[in-house]
Amino acid sequence: MGDAEDQDEQRGQLLSLGVRPDRVRFDAGLQGTRHRLPNRDALLDELTSGDTVVVTGLERLARSAAELGEITTVIRDRKARLRVGGTVYDPATEAGRTAFELFSRVFPDFEAGIYELRLTGPRKQAKAAGRYPGGQPKLTAEQRRQLYELYMSGSETVAQLQKRFGLSRSGVYMQIQRERETQTHQASS
Questions:
Q1: Of the candidates 167, 175, 166, which has an alpha carbon nearest to the alpha carbon of residue 148?
Q2: Residue-wise pLDDT tens digits, 116-173
Q3: I need a labelling partner for 82 at 20 to 30 A (CA). Which of 49, 112, 163, 186 fits?
């Protein structure tokens, strides 16, 4: 279904829900979460106490649970109502306050938790396999200490240390910095 067909269907559904034709707004062609939705944002800016925001589904109001939380907080704070299909959520009623609490706090926290869970398992597996972050260290702690001592004593050049430890020039300096930090931390402990 194209944007025009989708808009026509949405318009028909909104009109059947009692929305006046001059109050129907769309933000067509803006996909993804990077784009602001100017018509929706203007609707929220104009919202006053007693108004009702009407949508056919929550996915028409927001593109993520976090965004839904932000939008429903604005609606609640302006003492307006939210109508999703045939159900009206009024923040002045106990049931409405509960729904707005779900929309504005529980759902975004839930989505963030699910996202974290989706990443945690693969991260642990990758870390155990030495692929996260950045793979296994190039040098053991003992090799790094040895490289540092050779560098500090001046007995080998950076080029010699590169060859000896199989590192790039920046890798040698990174290992020196890491060892310096380790020794500074141990000295302060």
A1: 175
A2: 777 777 777 777 776 666 666 789 999 999 999 999 999 999 999 999 999 999 999 9
A3: 112
Using omega within 30 degrees of 0 as the cis cutoff, is the peptide bond preceding 133 cis? yes
Q: Report residue 26: phi and psi, to 5°.
A: -135, 150
Directed axis angle between helix 141-153 and helix 158-165, to 10°?
160
- Helix (H) or strand (E) holding 65, with range, is helix 65-77
Tokens of 157: 């050049």
Query: Edge-to-edge strands of the sheet including 52-55?
Result: 52-55, 81-84, 87-89
Q: Which helix (H) or strand (E) holds 128?
A: helix 107-128
